[in-house]
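Final report, Chapter 2: Outcomes

The project's central promise was a pipeline that accepts a single protein chain and returns its three-dimensional structure in a standardized token representation, suitable for archiving and comparison. That pipeline is now operational. To close this chapter, we reproduce one record exactly as it appears in the project archive, with the input sequence first and the structure output second.
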Amino acid sequence: MRCRTGLANLALLVVLLVAGCQEPTREPSNVEATIEARVVATVVAFQLRNPTATPRPAPTPIPTVTLTPIRVATPTPRLIVAPTEIPLPTPTTVPTGLTQTVSHVVGAVVAINTPAGTGSGFFFEDGLVMTNAHVVKGFLRATVVSKFNGINLGITGTVIGVDEELDIAVIEVSKNPERPTLKFGDSRTAQLAEDVLVIGFPLSNILGEAISVSKGIISSKRNIDGVEMIQVDAATNPGNSGGPLLNSQGEVIGMVTLKIVNEVANRFFEGTGIAIASNAIQDRLPSLLEE
């Protein structure tokens, strides 16, 4: 609507301009007004020929979004400590070497019976048995029970030598080269805490004549009444008297002779056994065999 009104006014202005040109006016023309009118007409005509469109705003550029990769955090490695396993207790076993030692020496250990009681002893030579003097108690004869070919055989032996001071005695029986014998070792080289074995027939009047083996260590080396003794913690009981005290090589380093008695309570002190040292026995043995 505004555009049409503008064109009508422009056309009217042109008509007036033309009319003014055709009919001269008697009065002098206003030059400035004429020039101004022409300028306006020219501008209007120019605008008609070149209509100005309303500028359209330039489209707002869509911002380019740059995708920045998100860094995935690398997990820091953790040291996971495995739970500590509690080891199961290992059953205590006798070393194989010790088992073999026992199997070789048990055949030389014997039980000794007299009218007064029982004890133990061992063959140290073919036909010769070592025991305590208090086991034979002054008897001239004693029964030596040994296992031969899996059978317990009782042999009557003769007491040929006794040393009551040292508490050792020798019994002679018939010879048999197939019987095993034990070898004396050097008791001076025995060390404290060294493994030892006590073999004999303890409590045979209660438990029967079955051989018994107990394991322990050397607790002390003592001198009792001028005699070299070895104290052990291996189990020793009545009936072990005269039995051998062996080292891990199967050598005789002593002979069980007594236990310490609590006279007040009339009981033995457990865990304390006394054996005559082998060197003391060997020192007396030659004179004992000459009797």
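Archive annotation: The helical segments are 2-22, 31-49, 96-105, 133-136, 204-207, 278-290.
This record, like all others produced under the grant, will remain available to the consortium after the project formally closes.
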